[in-house]
Specification:
179 residues, mainly alpha, two-stranded antiparallel ribbon, 9 helices, 59% helix, 3% strand
């Protein structure tokens, strides 16, 4: 659980349950989180979440150690599950235009967007997660430049251009740039 949660900066218990794949017959995610808190490997985050949510984080040194000691495929799976959760949150946020994003959600969405800028070109699914996240981060302004993220927007659009992401989704994100 610890290694899988190390793929995100902060998380709620609900997000942890969606990211972490547990061994059959092993502890439940909430029990694992409690054990991690008792061992001081996970602590409350300073990042504010939605009202009523407790936001947690894996301590930085522990996060770095867990990433180094975990097989890359397991980390990639956790990153994919996190990106899928954030893309789902992005679609809900776009559908309910009035509800503001809390800081923990903004950081999660931003991590997905930045994840598409890795060394390898993103595949269609990763690109779509990033584009949905980008759209949610930019909502409430007519242009992403007003949100101070034009450079990031251009880099993500360039990275996802030939990815196979749904053309209508790409076009919608392209509209943020005014292109």
């Amino acid at each position: 659980v610890l290694a899988q949660l190390s793929t995100t900066l902060c998380f709620t218990a609900a997000l942890a349950e969606q990211i972490a794949l547990l061994e059959p017959g092993g502890p439940r995610t909430l029990d694992a989180l409690q054990t991690l808190r008792e061992r001081a490997l996970v602590s409350p985050s300073r990042v504010p979440g939605a009202p009523g949510d407790v936001v947690l984080e894996v301590l930085r040194g522990v996060r770095d150690f867990a990433r180094r000691k975990t097989e890359p495929a397991r980390l990639a799976g956790a990153r994919e599950r996190h990106a899928a959760c954030m893309a789902s949150l992005a679609r809900r946020a776009l559908a309910s235009r009035d509800a503001p994003l809390d800081e923990a959600s903004r950081l999660g969405l931003l991590a997905v967007v930045r994840g598409a800028l890795g060394d390898a070109a993103p595949g269609a699914r990763e690109a779509e997660h990033a584009l949905w996240s980008l759209l949610a981060l930019s909502r409430g302004s007519d242009r992403a430049a007003e949100a101070g993220e034009l450079s990031l927007l251009s880099r993500v659009l360039d990275a996802t251009q030939g990815s196979g992401a749904h053309p209508a989704l790409y076009a919608r994100a392209l509209g943020l740039r005014g292109s």
